[in-house]
Every structure is written in C-alpha cells, then in structure tokens.
Write a structure and sequence with these properties.
Blueprint (H helix, E strand, L loop, with lengths): L1 E8 L8 E4 L15 H13 L6 H4 L8 E9 L2 E10 L4 E8 L2 E5 L1 H12 L3 H8 L3 H5 L6 H12 L2 H27 L3 H121 L1
Antiparallel strand pairs: 1-2, 1-3, 3-4, 4-5, 5-6
Length: 311
C-alpha cells in the first residue's frame, strides 16, 4: 500500500480544504505542536475504516456545521484506490464511498470498510499494528520494563493473538491426547472384533450364495412369465378374431331375416295383383258395352243439335 494523496475539509484542525499529495520517498512529517501532524495521520485510518480516537462529533472541526470530509488515495497491487468519508448534518451522519481505477466499487459505511479490508487484507486493529502506532504507545516504551515492552511490541505487530492461538492449540492437543487414552481403554477386545467380523463375513457369503440361487429361480420364473405372456397374446388374438366372426354372423342372419320378410311381403303383393287382374278381365265386357252406348248417345246429341239449328 502506497499513500499518494490526503484530502481534508472541516476535519479537526483542518477547517480549510487541504489537498496534500504525498511524493515518493516521503519518510516523515514535521511541524510545530498542534499543527496537525497526528491528525493528518489519523485521518488515514478514519477514511479507510471510519474509526477515530474520539466520537464522530469531535472529528468535525469545532463550531463548524459544514460537511466534514476525509479522503485518502493510495496505490495497491497495481491499482489506484480512493476512499472518501463524510459527516453531514447536525447529527454528523456518516457516509462513505470507494473507487478503484476511477470506477465506484462500494458505497455505505459498512460496505466501504469491508471492501477496504478485503483489498488490504487487514482489519482496523491489524492496520494500526502493522502500519502505524499511536503516540501514547510509542511514548510508553521508555517507561516500560523489558517484559512489558516485549508485550507492547507483540501487540503492535499482532503477534499476541498468535501466541494465544498457539497456547490454545497446545491445550487442545493435551486434552485430545487424554481423550484418546481414555477412549482407547473403552474399546472392546480387538481379537473378539476380528472373530466377529470373520463370522459375519461367513454369514454374508452364505447369504450371497442363497441370493444367487434366488436370482436363478427368479430368472426362471421371469422366463416362464414371458412365455405365458406370449401364449396369452396369441389366445387373446384368437378370441378377438372369434368375436369378430360372431358379430359378422349376427349381421348376416339379421340381413337374411329381413330378406325373408321382404319376400313374403312381395308374394302377398303379387297375389293381390293377380286377383285384381282377374276382376279387371271380368269387367272388360261391360266396359266394351259402355263404349257402344256412348257412341249412340253421341249420335242422338248430334241430331238434337241439328234440329235446333233448323228451327
């Protein structure tokens, strides 16, 4: 991580806007007491993680109601990052946003802090221990005994949690070894277990043989079932053919009965026609006489008409 710029406004003693570029090779910042050297360094932690040595209400310049702004620009692993935090309003409401190579990547107080931690690989506590130590921690070195000074250095370097983790691991290892010895005494006799396993294996083999016989019987039964299904299909096909023949026979019989009834009806009609023909033959002489009478009547009517004409 390489800091390249710090921008502040209404941040503690820096009421006026400050845009400070940090050149390469910078090894220190000097100035009179109260000039804001410590504040300048603290602003890096505040911008990145939103943490400070006092409340947020004290971060903003006293007597100022304008927005308090702290922005840090830095390079890390070939990328340029910018993190900006703002305190606005009477209640000093916190806002934050982060960009990477000019593109916004996070917004919001928690999201920005989590993003910074993911980029740098350290949280606020580890950042304080690995990047800078606060003034009161450095000033206490000369007054501390050697063992206390060692503890302070380990805390700054973040080694103390590793020591605690090492001690916890050793304690867990001793506890695990004790549990192992205790559980080992509770285990049953190994030879008895081997005998039980051998017996169980023999039973499994026997069961496997029985299973093989059952499988063979099942295959034979499946073959018989297949043949029975084939026979059933053949018989069922014959049944369907028989049913079709019976149905056709019934239709033919119905047609035959209808033809017989039609033949009887036609025979009756023929008999009636023969009777009518006989009656017509007997009436024919009478019909001939009627023709003679009609001719005579026509002659009389002609005579009457002639007489009327002469009169």
């Amino acid at each position: 991580m390489l800091l390249t710029r710090i921008s502040l406004r209404n941040y503690r003693v820096f009421e006026a806007p400050l845009d400070l570029e940090l050149p390469g090779g910078l090894v220190g910042i000097f100035g009179p007491n109260g000039a804001g050297k410590s504040v300048l360094i603290e602003s890096v932690r505040f911008a990145l993680y939103g943490r400070s040595r006092s409340t947020q209400g004290d971060v903003r310049t006293s007597g100022v109601l304008g927005d308090c702004v702290a922005e840090v620009e830095f390079e890390h692993e070939g990328h340029l990052y910018s993190v900006r935090r703002t305190l606005t309003g009477l209640n000093a409401t916190a806002k934050a946003d982060a960009t990477a190579d000019g593109a916004q990547v996070a917004e919001g107080v928690r999201d920005v802090a989590q993003y910074v931690q993911s980029v740098l690989g350290v949280d606020d506590a580890a950042f304080r221990a690995s990047v800078f130590a606060e003034q009161n921690q450095l000033a206490s070195f000369s007054a501390q005994a050697p063992d206390k000074r060692r503890e302070l250095v380990l805390r700054l370097l973040g080694v103390t949690p590793l020591d605690r983790a090492r001690d916890d691991a050793r304690r867990d290892a001793r506890s695990s070894a004790s549990d192992h010895d205790r559980l080992r005494g509770l285990l049953p006799d190994l030879e008895g277990l081997v005998a039980s396993v051998t017996l169980a294996t023999a039973k499994v083999d026997e069961a496997s043989g029985a299973s093989s016989l059952a499988t063979a019987s099942s295959e034979q039964a499946d073959e018989r079932l297949r043949r029975a299904e084939v026979d059933f299909e053949r018989i069922d096909e014959q049944r369907r053919a028989h049913d079709e023949l019976v149905s056709e026979g019934r239709s033919v019989k119905a047609e035959l009965v209808a033809a017989e009834e039609e033949s009887v009806r036609l025979a009756a009609e023929l008999a009636e026609l023969a009777t009518a023909e006989e009656e017509l033959a007997s009436l024919r002489p009478r019909a001939d006489g009627v023709g003679v009478v009609q001719a005579q009547l026509a002659e009389v009517q002609a005579v009457v008409a002639a007489e009327r004409a002469l009169a």
